[in-house]
Automatic annotation (TrEMBL):
This is Oxidoreductase. It holds the Pfam family GSDH. Residues 71-371 form the Glucose/Sorbosone dehydrogenase domain. SUPFAM superfamilies: Soluble quinoprotein glucose dehydrogenase (SSF50952). It comes from the Bacteria. It comes from Streptomyces capitiformicae. Keywords: Signal. Residues 368-387 have a biased composition (Basic and acidic residues). Coiled coil: none annotated. Transmembrane segments: none annotated. The keyword Signal applies.
Length: 387
């Protein structure tokens, strides 16, 4: 399979040379880990503690196994507290539970109101921070009129296909487009819900703080603007984004986000409340006053990043057009070494990566999204061991 992927990548590169200058989200169409106490009884000095928090310059990735396969347009992934993974199908508008031991798939049901088209459909998933008592599942999807966030009751005791309650819309009127719909949602350490949105190919929306497009939003589990947001009674948390699809927090509860560039630079950003990340005035590191520069950048053919996760002191970033998993080691709010690529071309387009605890990750491929070259078994969820 690796050899075949390399050939596919080479052909894709040739096509890209002929279509240089046009870019979309994927660049294919125009436009704290737990730590053990020290073995010594003597306390570590501050310098030793700081050194221990910085990951080594070089890491490693081992594919432990394929958890499941034959998924259709998988997008969002959310681990359940009782075990198992929820995965959304962008184009089928369904949510399924994956048994991580056997790989067995159980369809919870179809989410009504989803209107898949282009890059839109049923995308991000999140599990309520009060799941033990409320059994709520949150989803971000494209409807006929907008992008919206809903929550649904999950009842595993009901028959397969009937386990989702009616969706309760908690936030609507997020601008939609054929492309640039954002779609990632995640509960933060503060138990608020964060959502990434795109600017639907209208760059000025990203700079308009009254628009929900081209933003990272922060809302309560009921959909209200979260207390302490930077712009008063607004869900907007940061702005000036083109199309963020990766959200994750480090051990210090700092928020990180991956973002699709246009023709030049994809980005990894450390998100500050109220921060302006430049789009469409700046792509990549512009060094312009009033805009926050990314921590790291990539050429769009190397990344086109979607999901990110934290493990072993590094950001792990899934690449769609880049068909690789990036490791970005961190030292506080900056990189501690050059980013390192893994799995290049081995599994094709990579959509979502989620922490599986400790030094383990779940990784979702994305070959059936209309821009890949599906092979037997695509799409898959893989279990990785990383260092």
């Amino acid at each position: 399979m690796v050899q075949r992927r390399v050939v596919t990548a080479a052909l894709a590169a040739a096509v890209l040379l002929m279509t240089a200058g046009c870019s979309s989200d994927d660049g294919e169409q125009p436009d704290t880990p737990g730590s053990s106490p020290p073995s010594s009884s003597a306390p570590a000095s501050p310098s030793e503690q700081a050194a221990a928090e910085v990951p080594p310059a070089k890491g490693s990735v081992k594919v432990i196994r394929t958890v499941t396969e034959d998924l259709n347009t998988p997008w969002g992934l959310a681990p359940l507290p009782e075990g198992g993974l929820l995965v959304s199908s962008r184009d089928e508008a369904t949510i399924s539970r994956i048994d991580t031991e056997t790989g067995e798939k159980t369809e919870l049901g179809e989410v009504p109101g989803v209107a898949p088209a282009g890059e839109g459909g049923l995308m991000g998933l999140a599990v309520s921070p009060d799941y033990a008592s409320d059994h709520m599942i949150y989803a971000y999807f494209t409807s006929e009129s907008d992008n919206r966030i809903v929550r649904m009751l999950y009842d595993p005791e009901k028959p397969e296909g009937e386990q989702l309650g009616a969706p309760d819309t908690i936030l609507r009127s997020i601008p939609k487009g054929t492309n640039h719909n954002g779609g990632r949602i995640a509960f933060g350490p503060d138990q608020m819900l964060y959502a990434s949105t795109g600017e639907r190919y209208e760059g000025p929306l990203a700079q308009d703080k009254k628009s929900l497009g081209g933003k990272i939003l922060r809302i309560t589990p009921n959909g209200e603007p979260a207390p302490g947001n930077p712009f008063g009674n607004s869900p907007v948390y940061s702005y000036g984004h083109r199309n963020v699809q990766g959200l994750a927090w480090d051990g210090k509860q700092r928020l990180w986000a991956s973002e699709f560039g246009q023709n030049t630079w994809d980005e990894l950003n450390q998100i500050q409340p109220g921060g302006n990340y430049g789009w469409p005035e700046v792509e990549g590191k512009g060094g312009k006053s009033g805009y926050i520069d990314p921590v790291a950048v990539w050429g769009t053919d190397e990344a086109s990043p979607s999901g990110i996760a934290m493990a072993e002191g590094s950001v792990w970033m899934a690449g769609l057009r880049g068909e690789r998993l990036w490791r970005i080691p961190l030292d506080g709010t900056k990189t501690s070494a050059d980013p390192q690529a893994f799995l290049e071309g081995d599994y094709g387009r990579l959509r979502t990566v989620v922490s599986a605890g400790g030094n383990k990750l779940w990784l979702v491929t994305s070959e059936t999204d209309g821009r890949g070259s599906p092979e037997n078994g695509d799409d898959k969820i893989l279990e990785l061991e990383v260092r």
